[in-house]
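Subgroup meeting minutes
Present: P.N., E.W., G.H.
Scribe: E.W.

1. P.N. recapped why we're keeping a running log of single-chain structure predictions: easier to compare across weeks, and new members can see raw inputs and outputs side by side.
2. G.H. added today's entry (80 aa).
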Amino acid sequence: MSRDLGVGESATGQTVTVYAIGTALTAIPLTAATAGWRRKRLLMTAMAGFGVANTVTAVSTKFPLTMAARFGAGAAAGLA
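Output recorded in log:
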């Protein structure tokens, strides 16, 4: 992954950190914002966001895009 993105292994490892930050920063605000949603709609939205973010991560060749996608995946996980 680091070779494909053109960064070092330690920078690639930060994708895990950015995912965790995305989850930590968005879980409570997104939960409050979607409190009135039906459960099925909420789960489907979270799963769609998670799928899109992980697909972008898989096909990305740019490190900043990969990091943004990992943050989005973390946010989707926090919502779920």
